[in-house]
Amino acid sequence: QVQLVESGGGFVQPGGSLRLSCAASGSIFSINPMGWYRQAPGKQRELVASIGSVGGTNYADSVKGRFTISRDNAKNTVYLQLNSLKPEDTAVYYCNAYIRTKVGGPPYDYWGQGTQVTVSS
Questions:
Q1: Distance CA 26, CA 93 (A)
Q2: Who has the most CB within 10 Å: 87, 98, 106, 109?
Q3: Is 94 exposed, middle or buried (0-12, 13-18, 19+ CB in 10 A)?
Q4: In angstroms, rounded to a whole number, what is the distance separating the alpha carbons of residues 110 and 96?
Q5: What's the confidence (pLDDT) of residue 55?
Q6: Which long-range contacts (CB under 8 A, 24 or more apart) does 5-12 make?
Q7: Contact predicate 95/51, CB 8 Å
Q8: Cα dihedral 22, 38, 17, 32 sign
Q9: Among 86, 84, 91, 73, which residue's Cα sits nearest to residue 36?
Q10: DSSP 3-state assignment of 63?
């Protein structure tokens, strides 16, 4: 059984910062990639950022220069540092990871439960 557990969401004023964390646990052989998505009310879920096992990153244009994704492979954890937050960043943020549970096995797509980020004055 594999689980992704997120933490770090909350309420922040425009211009503020938050740090999201997502820890994977269970029967894990490898994880690649890990990423963060978000879904605002009435909108489709969208990719925010992703990171490969050796650190290659990809960001949505709307967050480039403001958000930073990182990971700690020893802890099976991915982080998202959110800086210079804007009201349009308000959404539920979901952690995502493709996880192999055994050598030679296929990767499976796992999701966290979501954490709310609200940016408002």
A1: 22
A2: 98
A3: buried
A4: 6
A5: 86
A6: 5/112, 5/113, 6/93, 6/94, 6/95, 6/112, 6/113, 6/114, 6/115, 7/115, 8/115, 9/93, 9/115, 9/116, 9/117, 10/116, 10/117, 10/118, 11/118, 11/120, 12/85, 12/117, 12/118, 12/119
A7: no
A8: positive
A9: 91
A10: helix
- List the structure tokens of 8: 């770090």
3-state helix, strand and coil shares in percent for the chain, rounded to the nearest 5: 5, 55, 40
- pLDDT tens-place string over residues 84-115: 999 999 999 999 999 999 999 999 999 999 99
Helix (H, G, I), strand (E, B) or coil at 16: coil
Euclidean distance between CA atoms 13 and 9, whole angstroms:
13
- Which two three-digit tokens encode residue 120? 């408002």
Contact 37, 48 (CB under 8 A): yes
